[in-house]
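[09:14] KT: can someone run the structure on this one? pasting the chain below
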Amino acid sequence: MSAAESTRTFGLLALAFSCGAFIFTGFIVHAIDVLRGLGHDPATALLLASLIGPAQVAVRLVELTFGHRYSIMSSALFAAAVLPLGLGLAWLAGGNLVIALLCLMAYGVANGLKAVLRATLPLALFGRAQFGAVMGGLALPQGIVSAAAPPVLAAVMANFGAEGMLALCFVIASIAFAATIALVRASPQVR
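[09:31] RB: done, structure tokens below
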């Protein structure tokens, strides 16, 4: 990979991971309040939010069992696609119990896969020799957005409600999806 290709690949990866980090660390803090803002009673909101963890674990088990059958780029694309889909559905019809459940399952699946991809994708793209430097470079933007996400989303929710927060998360997840598509196209040799 040339220096220009390496820089572009790193930029796309940093953008995708940072957008994901913003949503994964910000949304979870406010998930119950979002569900309440969409009209779910406290018990239902708590039950729905509690299903995120099992979705994360389930997708990791699937990845562990079947991950060798498909490429890492397929996993990355799937994780990046399912998040805006779930958030978009919740933004449009999150007051519906089934839609809210689908949103949180999509969030859990995407977050579970991203946990795996955060370590394996940089290794596949940059190799062992550059792995440490790449991981260090990716840590700074992810750390910044992870720290900023909860108060930013709290402010959005206070001013624009649950729908406004979901709209912002949908836009950010869509940016991550677009960056992942560009990353897949720029790295056809990675399996």
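[09:33] KT: thanks! The chain has five helices and no strands.
[09:34] RB: yep, looked fine to me
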